[in-house]
Design goal:
Structural class: alpha/beta
Helix content: 40-55%
CATH topology: TIM Barrel
Strand content: 15-25%
CATH superfamily: Luciferase-like domain
Number of helices: 10
Number of domains: 1
Number of strands: 14
Largest sheet: 7 strands, parallel
């Protein structure tokens, strides 16, 4: 089983950003398989849409470190772990800027980047970026098309309804060929179908604590991905799955480990990363919890 962890990025953890390199190094030395970041641009004071079905936004999102800069730090001090984004809100980014940043990460990490994308849920983040909140799915598709063009052709360019990249020289390519694998986070039917049609991997979420038989729910969603893949003439087995484990405040680490083992047994998924955003209010506590979970899950 592959086990990874989120980097210290939000809330009190963000205020210890000077020690992110230490955290990344310690986890790689302990045998972790991957390190991850997410993306929050702003935490609106009066959100039109709250987080996770609630009317509010968690206090932890009031302090946040930049995801791509964090991955750059982790890339500089590690040699083996995969470096993932779960997720970057692709429509908020200009494709040329995004391609340059992700290419840089893949080059300096020697091909360890695992880029995951989504469409987000916050209208205020779109407003802050100068991007219309509507047609987010179409903007995501065009952004992925533009990345594909920049990463695989030279000269490269792209013109769509929402996204334009003028033709330009694009000699520097990612280490991973023909490009880094594209992972997408989704739970709704349209997003799952998009994964089946075009993605290299799926990024589902498991909450801890959570309802029973969560693994069976994931398998049902995965069937929708596989069906869309077959309809698109693709092999569903070529689409990977990395499961994000969202741990609620106050959760016993033993329950986290038990849940991961149960989901793995029910689904056959063997690649997980644990997000301790709400669990630890200091980097030392976060590291202690991570190392304990790694030891338990690795036996």
């Amino acid at each position: 089983m592959k086990i990874g962890f989120s980097l210290p990025q939000h809330g009190a953890q963000a205020r210890e950003g000077a020690r992110v390199a230490h955290y990344a190094t310690a986890l790689e030395q302990a045998g972790a398989d991957s390190l991850w970041v997410g993306e929050r641009l702003i935490a609106a004071t009066n959100p039109a849409v709250g987080y996770a079905g609630k009317p509010t936004i968690p206090d932890e999102f009031n302090s946040v470190l930049d995801p791509l800069l964090l991955l750059g730090i982790a890339a500089a001090v590690t040699e083996r772990v995969r470096l993932g984004t779960n997720v970057l809100i692709a429509p908020l980014h200009r494709p040329a800027h995004l391609a340059r940043a992700l290419t840089t990460l893949d080059v300096v990490s020697n091909g360890r980047l695992l880029p995951g994308f989504g469409i987000g849920w916050s209208p205020e983040e779109y407003e802050a970026s100068g991007v219309e909140f509507s047609h987010r799915g179409a903007r995501l598709d065009e952004t992925l098309d533009a990345l594909e063009a920049i990463w695989t052709t030279d000269p490269a360019g792209y013109r769509g309804r929402f996204v334009t990249v003028p033709e330009h020289r694009s000699e520097l390519k990612p280490v991973q060929r023909p490009r880094p694998p594209i992972y997408l986070g989704a739970f709704n039917p349209a997003g799952l179908a998009r994964i089946g049609r075009r993605a290299d991997g799926w990024l589902p979420v498991v909450p801890v604590p959570g309802p029973p038989a969560w693994g069976q729910r994931l398998l049902g969603l995965r069937e929708l991905i596989d069906q869309a893949a077959v309809e698109a003439g693709r092999d569903p087995k070529a689409i990977d799955t990395v499961v994000r484990v969202n741990v609620a405040a106050g959760t016993d680490p033993a329950l986290v480990a038990d849940t991961i083992e149960a989901v793995a047994a029910d689904t056959g998924f063997d690649d997980f990363f644990i997000d301790l955003l709400y669990v630890a209010d200091s980097l030392d506590a976060m590291l202690d919890t991570s190392l304990g979970l790694l030891e338990r899950l690795r036996g």
